[in-house]
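Below is how a single chain appears once it has passed through the pipeline. First comes the sequence as given, then the structure the pipeline wrote out for it. We keep one example in the README because the format questions we get most often are answered faster by looking than by reading.
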Amino acid sequence: MNDKRQDQTSGQKNEGEGNKTAAREYNKGATEFAKSGQVEGKAREAKSAVDGKDGEKLRQAEREGQSHSHGEDPQLRRKAQ
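Resulting structure:
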């Protein structure tokens, strides 16, 4: 089976398990945002949203998402050796 075939719906190539192209694009965007100077302002906006009229809706959405989780990756808490 050829994992580099074109996806019929999106036009993207199938990269098999783990999409390295998407990961690279996400990491690039996250790094650019972190360097943009907008982080503090967006954090204030998020806090206002959670503390505001939509707060309960946002907390419910978070609980819904967490209900599908298999839990936190234990590797995140592993002590550095």
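The radius of gyration is 18 Å.

See the next section for the split statistics.
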